[in-house]
Amino acid sequence: MRVLSYSRFGKPEEVLTLAESQRPEPGPGEVRLRMHLSPIHNHDLITIAGNYGYKPPLPAVGGSEGYGVIDQLGEGVSGLAPGQRVAVSGLKGAWAQEVVARAASLVPLPDTVDDETAAQLIAMPLSALTLLEFTGIQPGSWLVQNAATGAVAKVLAQLAKVRGVHVVNLVRRAEAVAELEALGIGNVVVTAGDWKKEVSALTGGAPIAVAVDGVGGTASGDLLSVLGEHGQLVAFGAMSGQPMQISAGEMIFKQAVVKGFWLGKMMETMPPEEMRRLVGELVARAASGQMRLQTDAVFGIADAARAMRAAAESGRKGKVLVRLAG
């Protein structure tokens, strides 16, 4: 079978190679999948570059999530069947034509969830849904987020709407307004000019309970400045590459709280029934059309360099996927 592997850390388009590997055999409690599609996440690119919190032993196969079809059941596996469509995340080596995964980690899919949605159903959407619940925000309250065209931010806005939470979505590009509106996401504000006044007009002066920061740097302080009293500033990402710059005065007089969110750490202690509940909601939202996931491009497994370059480009409307089947 073919895999996308790397023997040294570096730029993904330079170090990834198409290689042959032995077919994996499922052990007890495991399942072998024939993989069809897999997304290229930022953390996949960073891992290959050697800059993530986890460094795999080399040589390694890239990728961490995808959609496939069950090929073979390992000993003791029940409730699943060969030929069944499933989504899987948390893999170490998803960019392979066949993979072995824990049976308990598989998410069976209804026919109403299309293949491209299935491939990216877990990682980013689960981050968004868990983040939303992590804040404890209540229906009728306001949340503001920057980097609103990001994969997690788009899902968060859609799921918050279903739950009755109001979201202000901050973007840098004027053309991003139409991009988000096409997904049914409103309250989009371009951060040019007097954007804080526009935010206040949207909320009608109501306090903003939660601010989600995916940028860092001065953007953190901007979010804090529009946050209401006793509000939460949640650090989710650091796209700017800069430390958060926030005002001590704003923190003190608003009695604000700054919290960090990392799904990987939360999953270490999350009860299995809680995980099933969250993933079940994601499948239901995707099947009903209440959560829409976008695809920017699909590349074949032999075209990995182009795929990696495309995934690293800014201004994408959706995920870049690798087609592994065939």
TrEMBL record:
GO BP annotations, alphabetical order: fatty acid biosynthetic process
EC number annotated for this UniProt entry: 1.3.1.104
Provide the Enoyl reductase (ER) domain boundaries: 11-322
Q: What class of enzyme is it?
A: oxidoreductase
User: Which SUPFAM superfamilies does this chain map to?
Assistant: GroES-like, NAD(P)-binding Rossmann-fold domains
Q: Which SMART domains match?
A: PKS_ER (SM00829)
Catalytic activity as recorded in UniProt: a 2,3-saturated acyl-[ACP] + NADP(+) = a (2E)-enoyl-[ACP] + NADPH + H(+)
Which UniProt keyword terms apply here?
A: Fatty acid biosynthesis, Fatty acid metabolism, Lipid biosynthesis, Lipid metabolism, NADP, Oxidoreductase, Transit peptide
Q: Which GO terms describe its molecular function?
A: enoyl-[acyl-carrier-protein] reductase (NADPH) activity
Q: Which InterPro entries match?
A: ADH-like_C (IPR013149), ADH-like_N (IPR013154), ER (IPR020843), GroES-like_sf (IPR011032), Mito_Enoyl-ACP_Reductase (IPR051034), NAD(P)-bd_dom_sf (IPR036291)
Family, according to the entry, reads as follows: Belongs to the zinc-containing alcohol dehydrogenase family. Quinone oxidoreductase subfamily.
What is this protein called in UniProt?
enoyl-[acyl-carrier-protein] reductase
Q: Which organism is it from?
A: Rhizobium straminoryzae
